[in-house]
Amino acid sequence: MMSATLLTDPTHHLDPDDTPAAPAPHATPPVDHPRPGPPAPPAVDMGIDPDNAPLAEVGESICRWAGRFAAATCGWLGLLAAFDRRRGWTAIGINSC
User: Fold this and answer.
1) 7, 27, 68, 85: which one has the fewest Cβ atoms less than 10 Å from its Cβ?
2) CA distances from 46 to 2, 50, 65 (A)
3) Maximal CA-CA distance, the chain
4) What pTM was computed for the model?
5) Dist. CA 10–CA 1, nearest whole Å
């Protein structure tokens, strides 16, 4: 158990017996309702209300967005490769990349 000395004396050194016990893991199932507090407004229209939609629908939307991110990343990397092949960086005075 951790002693009060550790909290009040900055010169106190930890002993192995002074380390706090790890918190017990808890197996709280996911909730299918919003958490307390105001939800953050979405930056883009996600097609669903993530704070009130059923949890399964939120999970499906996450997967759809992951596909969109992957496709956009592929396109962006293609543009970047073409820019590099064509030495686009020389236009701003950089002699090598």
Assistant:
1) 27
2) 47, 8, 9
3) 66
4) 0.48
5) 18
